[in-house]
Amino acid sequence: MSQSWTENTESDSTMVLSALGSKYSAEILCAAGTPKSAQALSEDIEIPIATCYRRIEELVDAGLLTCEGRQLSEEGRRTNIYRRTLDEIEIDFSDGEPEFSRKRRTEAKNRLEDQLKD
């Protein structure tokens, strides 16, 4: 189900475009189809952990990634777990300001993917 980002403001547009334009952001979003920690994302796409945390913060601020909760790491520390909030995004530049269309992830899809992962 695709929907337009009608509540889109200029600052929202700028934030989304900035987050998507950062190196590794697309890779993080692709890898975050299932819940993952920053450490797991960093290892999966082979980027420094500090860079991964910066990109995660940008993506969360732009509404493209969400923190789904916390879990214990292998070292016994509590870590945030992230998952992308959408499956598709389309940006139309034909008018004066970018217009976004997105396909949000549903809870049903998240649950199904979680079951298939186990």
UniProtKB/TrEMBL annotation:
<dbReference type="InterPro" id="IPR036390">
    <property type="entry name" value="WH_DNA-bd_sf"/>
</dbReference>
<protein>
    <submittedName>
        <fullName>Helix-turn-helix domain-containing protein</fullName>
    </submittedName>
</protein>
<feature type="region of interest" description="Disordered">
    <location>
        <begin position="96"/>
        <end position="118"/>
    </location>
</feature>
<dbReference type="Pfam" id="PF12840">
    <property type="entry name" value="HTH_20"/>
</dbReference>
<dbReference type="InterPro" id="IPR036388">
    <property type="entry name" value="WH-like_DNA-bd_sf"/>
</dbReference>
<dbReference type="InterPro" id="IPR011991">
    <property type="entry name" value="ArsR-like_HTH"/>
</dbReference>
<feature type="compositionally biased region" description="Basic and acidic residues">
    <location>
        <begin position="107"/>
        <end position="118"/>
    </location>
</feature>
